[in-house]
Amino acid sequence: MSTDAGRVSAQGPGAPGYPAPVRPPRAPGGRRSTTAVVCLLLGLAALTVAAVGTWAGHGPDVPADVAAFDRVREMWHSEPVDALLPPTLRGDGAGPGGADRTWTRIVLAPDSGCAGAFDPALAKELAPVGCERLLRATYTDATGTDVITVGLLFARAEPAPWSRAAARFEHEGVDSRARTLPRPVAGKDTPAARFGDHQRASWAIGLLPDAPVVVYAVSGFADGREIGRPQPAAEAMLDKQTSAAAQSGLGDEAQGVADGVEAALRARITATAPGEDR
What we know:
By secondary structure, the protein is of the alpha+beta class. It has helices at 34-55, 64-73, 75-78, 81-84, 120-126, 159-171, 233-236, 244-248, 250-271; strands spanning 7-11, 88-92, 101-108, 133-141, 146-154, 200-207, 213-221, 231-232. Keywords: Membrane, Transmembrane, Transmembrane helix.
């Protein structure tokens, strides 16, 4: 696989192009570069410091991080849906072997609570952060053979419990456990008409370190074929994997769409921060 990390941007009304958070490149043999990981962590730290500075100025009675969290958690209804779940996502180098990808939104679910959106094991893991609102959409690739449901869960947790939950997800590998999968959103008369639980091939899920939002995606084949054992995207994207998700690139699809939607969200966070020109 290519060692160049992909860049994903959103296209559509209210959704300016914005590079996705760059994942550490895959080194030969499936091992990630230590230098790239360090650079990524330093970059995230710098982004968080900059964000806190941008969101400051809410007065002595409201800590900047609490005010920032409150502002982001309300974006599900304060921002246009096309800005958060863009009609089109473009992934430069986001596919297998560094191939460019384009995904088109084919299903847009009504905003909702989180009941029924996750397998029971994942719902239990997410319960401590709460569910303010859930936005979901399903995309297809340019060939119409792959379908990917993506979700933005706006959580209720305040900064301290949110940070603990995000750290636990990362350090305990909750996002890669079997039976901790999000569920797809099908769409009648679309390529996702047969996209159900048994068609899930790969998934990616993450809690943003600096905002109360869970970003996830789950992918499968549009032809309705069943997948006996889904594989998390982080594993499916490693070299020399032989699962259906790895061989078909559905791990890359799940991760790429999740990255693209996260990029769109971060673009809106930056554009709407207090003191910024809109």
